[in-house]
Amino acid sequence: MRRPLWIKHAAQLVTVGGSKGPRTGADMSELGLIEDGSVWIEDGEIKAVGTTSELEARFGEWEEEADVYEATGRLVTPGLIDPHTHFVYGGSREKEFEMRLEGASYMDIMNAGGGIHATTRMTREATEEELYRQAELRLNSFLRHGVTTVEGKSGYGMELETELKQLGVMKQLNEQHPVDVVSTFMGAHAVPQEFKGREDEFVGLIIDEMIPAVAAEKLAVFNDVFCEVGVYTPEQSRRILEAGKRHGLKPKIHADEIEPYGGAELAAEVGAISAEHLLKASDKGIRRMAEAGVIACLLPATALYLREEAARGREMIDAGVPVTISTDCNPGSSPTTSMPLVMNLACIAMRMTPAEALVAATINAACAIGVQDKAGSIEPGKQADLVIWNVRNYQELQYLFGVNHVHAVWKKGRKVV
Ligand code: NIG
Ligand code: FE
């Protein structure tokens, strides 16, 4: 048995405890704050949470047996969760960044064979070991930014072999790296160049060949599709998502990112766990998502990087949509691993409050990838995934922006940063 761990005297302990499902409306501001907070951890699991004096009364006599960590003067939060990334890929696309600054659009570059197609070529060429090494470095960076659970998508293969290679790397990293990785199959990330003009044929391949193979090998929990003008139509997206459901893969959808296309409405219709991006989601789509309880996964770093107006986060929360936020870490539209930056941007660009940004990046993110029973909050029975920050309170975390305030990180009770 490992020695117990006692983190004590946190200036502020943000627990975000007490919810079974995603938080909406005013509940998105409920942080479950404890001043002078303490957490008692045994075998990687949270056993007790309270003020330091409460825990001294309960565990004081075992103090000698425990590893004690003083968080005096600092903020403690749950490990952050990134519910939407494309972190396993080959190569890099800094040239496209320059091209976009000179005026080329994201879709123009993709339609000319760059963008997702360029990364697909580089990912097909990379060996599994190369992909693993690159992705491992990105997970290390996530961890240093306080992120202890990450969702990852395939979709830079768009042929069975490479899709399985990407998902295989995620599976290995989940087993070998401290960060928990939750996998999503995204064969419908673009229409591969060799299928140009034969889109429906490729949709058929995804439905008849790829989804059954991925599900049979239990390599993914979710099934995602890029529903966008010039990529997959809402009708094709629906077929792909329904096929995934028949094989036990829960639907997610990249919706209304570049143009309004009914993606938010489709997310509600197919019962998607979340809809992503939503920069151009319609009022009706937002209403439908609120009614159906679809989580809006908003990506303000992507909007900034594409120099677009951010999604209507404030309005979505006010309309009762559960909101989460994510880096969208990928080599084209958001090459970052910084969830703290994303929280800052959620406040600045979407007028979310500091408390809402933290709820969005913890318990709501956990719900968006189905890990809320073990992560996303500091409460008894959950994994001891915790971050100590070099700030005194949660407002300061969002106020001092663009800076990495991480002081220390625990994953399942082990100190990893
Ligand atoms: O979520 N929108 C589609 N897919 C990614 C971008 C992938 C890339 O550019 O490589 C996204 O932004
Ligand atoms: Fe994405």
Automatic annotation (TrEMBL):
Enzymatic reactions: 4-imidazolone-5-propanoate + H2O = N-formimidoyl-L-glutamate
InterPro entries the UniProt entry points to: Amidohydro-rel, HutI, Metal-dep_hydrolase_composite, Metal_Hydrolase
UniProt binding sites for 4-imidazolone-5-propanoate: R93, Y156, H189, E257, S333
Entry's cofactor comment: Binds 1 zinc or iron ion per subunit.
Key word Metal-binding present: yes
CDD domains xrefs: Imidazolone-5PH
Cofactor: Zn(2+); Fe(3+)
Residue sites binding N-formimidoyl-L-glutamate per the record: Y156, N330, G332
Protein residues bound to Fe(3+): H84, H86, H254, D328
Pathways involved: Amino-acid degradation; L-histidine degradation into L-glutamate; N-formimidoyl-L-glutamate from L-histidine: step 3/3
Gene Ontology MF terms: imidazolonepropionase activity
UniProt-annotated binding residues for Zn(2+): H84, H86, H254, D328
Domain of life: Bacteria
Domain Amidohydrolase-related: 75-416
Keyword line: Cytoplasm, Histidine metabolism, Hydrolase, Iron, Metal-binding, Zinc
Broad class of where this protein is predominantly found: cytoplasm
EC number in record: 3.5.2.7
Compartments in which it is found: Cytoplasm
Keyword Iron: yes
Family indicated by similarity: Belongs to the metallo-dependent hydrolases superfamily. HutI family.
Protein function: Catalyzes the hydrolytic cleavage of the carbon-nitrogen bond in imidazolone-5-propanoate to yield N-formimidoyl-L-glutamate. It is the third step in the universal histidine degradation pathway.
The name this protein goes by in its record: Imidazolonepropionase
Record lineage: Bacteria, Bacillati, Bacillota, Bacilli, Bacillales
